[in-house]
Design goal:
heterodimer; A: alpha/beta; Transcription Regulator spoIIAA; five-stranded mixed β-sheet; 50% helix; B: alpha/beta; Globin-like; 2 domains; 11 helices; 66% helix
């Protein structure tokens, strides 16, 4: 069965969506990603959707859910590489993904993740 | 068909005379715009129209949409279009046709004693025909105006949505005019496209040029901000005038977590700070020159050693 690969890099997980997502694939990804975060003890998740050309309301909600699930499992999530057309569609659908962190590309996303995790460690240390 | 034959007859008999009286009447009319159109142009247009009218009438039809009238209609179309460009009002344009009534009625009166019944009928016919032709010019005039308005709207749409790079990584979007759905779409697409191209992390939306902000405009602004955020760019809204701040609060619009600033300069300062950049005052010229002198003496001194 078709699967979206989840790559482990240190304490981060990289999810690169290189195919057009369909609903079943998205649900499988939820299962895989949550399992992997727990298994690897990941602190950050980076979801690259630069190849995603079409989104519907389900996909929008899915992205939000993925981020919320990762947060529950104590991993920061950044969605990167959203195309302009996808962003406009999501906003028009009323899904502005308020709980999700975003960045323009993988590089920026990685910087953001590192900064967030560092900040959190400092907070944990001081508390 | 008798009355139409009378009209055709009159025109055939005295086209030149009627034409001359018509042209004289137009040129001496109270509202004649010598600043917009020349006498020779009026004369030429009038003669051409009379000839076209006679030809159309000779065909025996009074239906303006029949092929026999195509020539007359086309002539009127051109006339209307040119007068619209020259700045005439619709009334002035229609008066071109209506002023033909008097010379024609004068010509009819000469026949009154000979054949009263058909003359009266012919008068009614002429009146109806010229009314329709006059309205036709007005209609064409209107259409041309509409075309001009639509073209200007499009030009406005293209003109008024520039995305400017203020600094590396800082974009500015000066919005001018009312933000409606169509413009928001264009603004949003332009902004997101530029975010991708330049990799900008901060976009400043300046609404100094937006005359009023109602709930719909605010919603459009928030949509643009949300879309930019999804692309990883933070938005700052600047150029909020005092009245607009009041309106926003009175309307109960929630701008949420969006950073707002009064002026573009304030927003730019915030953007630079976020990028870790500072603006420092250059050293005064005199001090710079003195330092340069000192540098020179030290280097030359070293050279001598």
């Amino acid at each position: 069965m078709e699967r979206i690969p989840i790559l482990k890099m240190g304490e981060y997980l990289l999810v690169t969506v290189q195919v057009d997502m369909h609903d079943r694939l998205a649900l499988t990804l939820q299962d895989d990603l949550t399992a992997k975060i727990v298994q690897a003890g990941a602190k950050g998740v980076l979801i690259d959707i630069s190849a995603l050309e079409m989104v519907d309301s389900f996909m929008g909600r899915m992205l939000g859910d993925l981020a919320a699930m990762s947060r529950v499992l104590d991993a920061e999530t950044v969605v990167v590489g959203m195309r302009p057309a996808v962003a406009i569609t999501l906003v028009e659908l009323g899904l502005s993904l308020t709980g999700v962190r975003t960045a323009l590309n993988v590089e920026r996303g990685m910087d953001l993740l590192k900064a967030r995790i560092k900040e959190r460690r400092q907070n944990d240390g001081s508390a | 068909m008798g009355e139409q034959a009378t009209l055709t007859d009159i025109l055939q008999q005295d086209e030149a005379g009627i034409g001359q009286r018509w042209i004289d009447a137009q040129l001496s009319a109270h509202g004649f715009r010598a600043d917009r159109i020349s006498r020779s142009e009026v004369t030429e247009q009038s003669k051409r129209f009379l000839a076209a009218l006679r030809q159309a009438l000779e065909s025996g039809s009074t239906d303006l949409h029949s092929p026999a009238w195509a020539n007359t209609r086309q002539m009127l179309d051109e006339l209307s279009a040119s007068r619209a460009v020259q700045g005439f009002s619709p009334t002035e344009t229609a008066m071109f046709i209506f002023s033909l009534k008097d010379p024609l009625f004068d010509a009819l009166r000469q026949r009154l004693t000979k054949d009263p019944a058909s003359t009266v009928a012919a008068q009614r016919e002429i009146s109806g025909l010229l009314d329709r032709l006059g309205l036709h010019t007005t209609e064409i005039f209107q259409k041309n105006r509409e075309r001009i308005i639509i073209r200007q709207q499009q030009e406005l749409l293209e003109l008024s949505t520039p995305v400017v790079t203020l600094w590396e990584g800082v974009l500015a979007l000066p919005v001018i005019g009312t933000l409606d759905s169509a413009r928001t779409q264009v603004v949003m697409e332009n902004l997101l496209q530029r975010v991708v191209e330049t990799g900008a992390a901060i976009a400043i939306i300046d609404i100094t040029g937006v005359p009023t902000v109602d709930t719909l405009t605010a919603q459009h602004l928030l949509k643009t901000v949300a879309a930019a955020r999804l692309m990883g760019a933070d938005c700052i809204i600047s150029g909020i005038r005092p009245q607009i701040a009041q309106t926003i609060v009175h309307l109960g619009v929630d701008l949420g977590t969006v950073v707002t600033k009064a002026t573009l300069a304030d927003a730019f300062a915030v953007a630079l700070r976020r990028l870790g950049l500072t603006i420092a005052k250059a050293q005064p010229a005199a001090k710079r020159a003195r330092e340069a002198d000192e540098d020179e003496t030290t280097t030359t001194g070293r050279g001598e050693n």
